[in-house]
UniProtKB/TrEMBL annotation:
<dbReference type="InterPro" id="IPR036188">
    <property type="entry name" value="FAD/NAD-bd_sf"/>
</dbReference>
<feature type="domain" description="FAD dependent oxidoreductase">
    <location>
        <begin position="39"/>
        <end position="392"/>
    </location>
</feature>
<dbReference type="InterPro" id="IPR006076">
    <property type="entry name" value="FAD-dep_OxRdtase"/>
</dbReference>
<dbReference type="Pfam" id="PF01266">
    <property type="entry name" value="DAO"/>
</dbReference>
<dbReference type="GO" id="GO:0005737">
    <property type="term" value="C:cytoplasm"/>
</dbReference>
<keyword id="KW-0560">Oxidoreductase</keyword>
<dbReference type="GO" id="GO:0016491">
    <property type="term" value="F:oxidoreductase activity"/>
</dbReference>
<feature type="region of interest" description="Disordered">
    <location>
        <begin position="429"/>
        <end position="452"/>
    </location>
</feature>
<protein>
    <recommendedName>
        <fullName>FAD dependent oxidoreductase domain-containing protein</fullName>
    </recommendedName>
</protein>
Length: 452
């Protein structure tokens, strides 16, 4: 009988990343932070929060990071590890319409360089996180000569990204897949072990003299007090700061849950598979991860040790592990003509989705900043966002940051938005299954139990 599980259970499962590697950063075990005054207090030890902490500390500021779990426990350590220096659902023209041409040009230029900056940081700080800047591929079912490819290529290049078109022969040589006739290649993209990177980032921050406190939730929203100080209440006591940054994105709880309300917190299931010892050498032999185009996105990356990571958007809160495994095994077979040996890891993460597809830089209260809206492109965007937040914490004028600062506005009817998105994904999944059946690839199973 199939074993029914819940998304909540999969959110608690450990990901495959940094397996067997202990956390490097020395967090305070019994922190004496009651009454302490910092230049900057950051809530959340993910990529954004720790990047902001690192850069603020390097500017000479006294910085503390408060983490409810441990570094990378949220989305930063529970994603696919793709480094993609573009936005997901919008192009440069959309950013220009929303923010103005001058600001959009600055934003796109800095985001397009975010992958280079991240890989350079990894090199300089000697972070061991399986970093590979071999590019990232985005295939689709259009033939290489279709006009849609030139339009996409032009949009990417206008945003500052280095991109080129990959034809069917080259795509098959790089990935071992004949499923797609063409793909775009973001040449400066790549992949990392996101949990190992986040832990290395935490260690780099601590080496600079910063204070990292694990197991330390923000109990109530940060609020300014007298003397222009922000008050932050925690289980270890109350601390004060000249500036505060809430960097929990869609994973905030207690005092940070208002930030979560600004997004549609969408779930993503991820899985790691052992590939068969023979006959799988062709699978992603170029070490270039890829994500195809569509709501029901198919994505894959090769790991060391003859392993593969993939995943799926769930269309229900209640699932069966057997159904998930059947769906993902079927996808691997269809894409690479290989049957995986076994499922080794299965976990879930959250994607902070904003209604317009744009990230948001938020003024949560006087001298309290936050951001949300990675929209599935969290690593590169989070890294550069942390640098911008560090500038604001160091009293840089708001105009120096290439994003508008806006008040927190809760997403309207988030449950309805998630329900609609799930239905659209489920409909596209059925269409793909029907096309594959017509092409002679019958479905092997269903990925989820009926929606609750």
């Amino acid at each position: 009988m199939p074993t029914v599980t819940s998304l909540a259970t999969l959110f608690a499962e450990r990901p495959c990343w940094a397996r067997g590697v202990p956390a490097e950063a020395d967090a305070s075990a019994s922190p004496a932070i009651e009454g302490e005054v910092y230049d900057v207090v950051i809530v959340g030890a993910g990529i954004t929060g720790l990047t902001a902490a690192f850069h603020a500390t390097r500017r000479g500021l006294r910085v503390a990071v408060l983490e409810a779990g441990e570094p990378g426990a949220g989305a930063s350590g529970r994603n696919s590890g793709f480094v993609i220096p573009t936005l997901s659902r919008v192009g440069p023209e959309d950013v220009a319409r929303a923010w103005g041409a001058a600001r959009a040009a600055r934003f796109n230029a800095q985001l397009s360089n975010a992958a280079n900056a991240l890989f350079e940081f990894i090199h300089l700080e000697r972070i061991d996180c399986d970093a590979q800047q071999n590019g990232w591929l985005q295939p689709d079912q259009f033939e290489a000569g279709a006009a849609v490819w030139q339009n996409r290529l032009r949009s990417l290049r206008e945003s500052g990204a280095k991109a080129r078109l990959v034809g069917p022969d080259e795509f098959k040589a790089l990935t071992g897949s004949a499923r797609y006739p063409a793909a775009l290649c973001l040449m400066e993209g790549g992949q990392i072990d996101p949990l190992a990177f986040t832990r290395g980032l935490a260690a780099a921050f601590v080496r600079l003299g910063g204070t990292l406190v694990n197991g330390c939730r923000l109990l109530v929203p940060a609020r300014p007090q007298t003397h222009q100080l922000v008050r932050l209440e925690t289980p270890y006591g109350t601390v004060f700061a000249r500036r505060a940054i809430v960097a929990t994105n869609a994973n905030g709880h207690d005092g940070a849950k208002n930030l979560t309300a600004a997004t549609l917190p969408f779930a993503l299931l991820l899985a790691a598979y052992d590939l068969p010892p023979d006959g799988a050498d062709h699978v992603l032999c170029g070490n270039q991860p890829f994500s195809d185009v569509g709501r029901d996105m198919w994505f894959f990356r090769r790991l060391q040790g003859n392993r593969l990571v993939t995943g799926i958007f769930p269309t229900s809160t209640w699932l069966t592990r057997e159904g998930i495994n059947a769906e993902l095994t079927q996808r691997i077979e269809r894409v690479f003509d290989v049957t995986p040996a076994r499922l080794t890891d299965l976990w879930a993460g959250r994607v902070g989705v904003t209604p317009r597809g744009l990230p948001q830089l938020l003024q949560l209260a006087p001298n309290v900043f936050g951001w949300t809206g990675c929209n599935g492109r969290g690593i590169a965007l989070s890294f550069v966002m942390g640098q911008w937040l560090a500038e604001l914490a160091a009293d840089a004028p708001v105009e120096s940051v290439p994003m508008p600062l806006q008040p927190l506005k809760p997403a309207g009817a988030p449950r309805v938005g998630v329900w609609v998105a799930r239905r659209l994904i489920a409909a596209e999944r059925r269409r793909r299954t029907q096309r594959d059946r017509c092409a002679g690839h019958p479905a092997r199973g269903e990925a989820t139990t009926p929606a609750d």
